[in-house]
Amino acid sequence: MEELKVSSHSDPKAVAGALAAVVREDKKVELQAVGAGAVNQTIKAIAISRGYVAPNGMDLIMIPAFTEIEIDGEERTAIKFLVEPR
After folding, report:
1. How many CA atoms lie within 13 A of 62 on its CB side?
2. Which PANTHER family match (predicted)?
């Protein structure tokens, strides 16, 4: 499964394009976000990508969950979003 990392500085349209491309190919993608700004950009990207894949007859679902990741040798709590077609 492809894993995309989203930051607070990520462009939601660019992330949405990458997300749509991966969903069309692999059917499942995991997005990871640390912090409120990154979560905000991730949610916007998911909403935008639904419009990108709709002409292909796809509808997306999102399953959020917490996960622990390591950044610069430190354990951090991130939110992961599993996105797949319905």
Report:
1. 18
2. STAGE V SPORULATION PROTEIN S
61-71 pLDDT, tens digit each: 999 999 998 88
Spell out the SS3 assignment of the chain.
Answer: CEEEEECCCCCHHHHHHHHHHHHHHHCCEEEEECCHHHHHHHHHHHHHHHHHHHHHCCCEEEEEEEEEEEECCEEEEEEEEEEEEC
| 33-68: pLDDT as tens digits | 999 999 999 999 999 999 999 998 899 999 999 999
Class of domain 2-85: alpha beta
Tally Cβ neighbours within 10 Å of residue 13: 13
Q: What are phi and psi of 72, to 5 degrees?
A: 55, 40
